[in-house]
Design the sequence.
């Protein structure tokens, strides 16, 4: 941008949760000045106190109402880029990206529905990895008894069972014996059973940004040294060449647009991908602090149509911690906006 140019108006959705808040932090850290507009579905909301303009949207389960209000906000605030902060909104925005661009003049930073259908389905993720000739955890649909038996014969216990449609480690069950599968079946949720990738202390998160041309802009990785409720609490950011190379192969095969977070474990068979998140994630702000700012990349690529240089990533440790914001009975913050 030239000196004195107006800030780029970006809209971050789902700012009441950790992903949306991480995206706000990355936008604030961008070398490209941003005017940050935030949306959520209810107040009080921490993220709405961090932005330059905040709005409530209908729940995205009411697609027409949500999209109508979103377009209105984008027009009012001259938004040029929409950064989805939740998976449900991501899916809706991806399906209607062309319509939003036409009606509001705003670009959605989201992978196409064909990519999301694979990556947001943990069974399809395994199948994709296998078809693409990439390293994959051996797996079986819980409902396919013969396949589960074959999996146990091939890899033995322990295994893990996880919801096909789920976020992070929510709903994940360790399976140490046949008896452990019965309570999982009784949940009545579509599940996939996978080999448990070991060791536990070799889990990595790698982010790869894919430009609109299909080229990737390097990779950044951190070892997930400590997890709390499935989220990274302590991470060691450094070059992990083998896991980064595998994540780049995954991105090249999947062909997402924009940010894509690949989660792997380094095993005796090498790095193995067990989850793909083609979206912004809770680690977006951590990566930005160490030089890999996916929000800035999205602005350069999708709004300014500038070349995106490969970032110079530094190393270090990131530690998350709890914070609070206080509101009165009228929903007004009792402290400053923070961030």
Sequence:
């Amino acid at each position: 941008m030239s000196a004195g140019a107006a800030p780029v108006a970006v809209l971050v959705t789902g700012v009441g949760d950790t992903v949306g808040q991480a995206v706000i932090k990355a936008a604030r850290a961008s070398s490209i000045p941003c005017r940050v507009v935030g949306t959520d579905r209810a107040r009080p909301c921490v993220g709405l106190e961090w932005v330059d303009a905040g709005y409530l949207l209908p729940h995205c389960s009411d697609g027409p109402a949500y999209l109508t209000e979103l377009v209105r906000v984008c027009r009012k605030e001259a938004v040029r880029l929409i950064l989805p902060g939740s998976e449900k909104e991501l899916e809706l925005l991806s399906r209607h990206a062309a319509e939003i661009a036409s009606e509001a003049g705003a670009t959605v930073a989201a992978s196409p529905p064909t990519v999301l259908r694979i990556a947001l389905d943990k069974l399809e993720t395994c199948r994709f990895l296998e078809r693409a000739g990439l390293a994959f955890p051996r797996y079986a649909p819980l409902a396919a008894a013969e396949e589960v038996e074959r999996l146990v014969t091939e890899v033995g216990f322990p295994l893990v069972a996880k919801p096909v449609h789920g976020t992070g480690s929510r709903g994940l069950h360790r399976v140490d014996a046949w008896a452990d599968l019965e309570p999982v079946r009784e949940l009545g949720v579509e599940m996939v059973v996978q080999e448990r990738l070991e060791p536990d202390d070799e889990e990595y998160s790698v982010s790869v940004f894919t430009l609109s041309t299909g080229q990737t802009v390097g990779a950044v990785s951190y070892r997930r040294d400590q997890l709390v409720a499935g989220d990274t609490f302590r991470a060691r950011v450094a070059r992990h060449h083998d896991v980064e190379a595998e994540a780049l192969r995954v991105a090249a095969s999947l062909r997402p647009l924009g940010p894509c977070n690949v989660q792997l474990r380094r095993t005796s068979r090498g790095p193995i991908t067990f989850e793909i998140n083609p979206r912004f994630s809770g680690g977006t702000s951590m990566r930005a602090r160490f030089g890999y700012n996916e929000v800035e990349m999205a602005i350069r690529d999708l709004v300014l149509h500038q070349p995106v240089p490969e970032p110079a990533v530094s190393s270090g440790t990131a530690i998350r911690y709890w914070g609070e914001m206080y509101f009165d009975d009228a929903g007004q913050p009792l402290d400053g906006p923070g961030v």
Observations:
- The chain has three domains: 8-109, 138-195, 199-319.
- The chain has a mean pLDDT of 93.
